[in-house]
Amino acid sequence: MPDVLLAVGTRKGLFLGRRRAGTWEFDGPHFTGEAVYAVGLDLRGPVPRVLVGADSAHWGPSVFRSDDLGASWQEPASPTVRFPKDTGASLERLWQLQPAGPEAPGVVYAGAEPAALFVSRDGGDSFELVRPLWEHPSRSRWEPGGGGEGLHTVVTDPRNAAALTVAVSAAGVFRSGDGGASWAPSNDGVSAVFLPDQHPEFGQCVHKIARAAADPDRLYLQNHWGVYRSDDAGAHWSDIGDGLPSDFGFTVLAHPSRADTAYVFPITADSDRVPAERRCRLFRTTDGGAHWEPLASGLPTGDHYGTVLRDALCTDAADPAGLYFGNRNGELYASADEGESWRQLAAHLPDVLCVRAGVVG
Known about the structure:
1 helix
């Protein structure tokens, strides 16, 4: 088994796990008492960099970084993610820290609330606002979702550094083909069942998007209601939710090497946010959403109430792929065989908000 770093952001700090020779060791919490909604693992350089968006109730949100796997942390003297004064906005939360791929060395994106995209070209040391999205003509009509108005997902394209896709709750999907200089809504086929016009140009409450690494044109989307697939990089979406016990949920994950394989964690409903049928199960498709199968071996049996949030499911991109998820019960689970079987790594953690993993050995 390869060595893996596992970062678990919770309502009350960050926990770090290391798997060495098949054995897990954990330390933390780092950033005690601070909510950690965003973690980015930048594995592109000779030394892994861990980026953490920690939210202090007193000092507000900030970006910390570590180049020694969490042994020490650095915080800039002044905030790295900051709205320019002329915007009249202030940073409420960091929802996403997403290193780009090898097509854009040193580039890291930050998704924020109020909904905005920031870009760093120095590995996360400094960020600047992507103004064309902030100033998009539709912006005045964006509405917050239940968790606020956050830009929570950034998807890059390994073939083209200028191609970007973002998701905003609750404004939908927006795409840029010119490095963020211009943006267009990209929600064709995604419904908004809570609006009078259920197929608007924008206004969908997209919860998460995942790109299939094996086919960059293949995207999976978990909506407020509905699970979708795109085969043209997000230009059009098709509903693939049939066969799931519920098509409401928060997270979606694409397999790191098989484009037809993806995972979701169904939730009963927006009015009853517990696991579908009160069972702790992921569902997997291996044929692009035509069929779904439950994955529960080693997971709790009987009634279960641990909801998995949008960034609390991830893969380490190993072969076979390791999968990891945490829930709002403070439980953390891992699978070393792509979801066929699971083991609990931790229990009684604070509310798990995000999980990130990567091979570091």
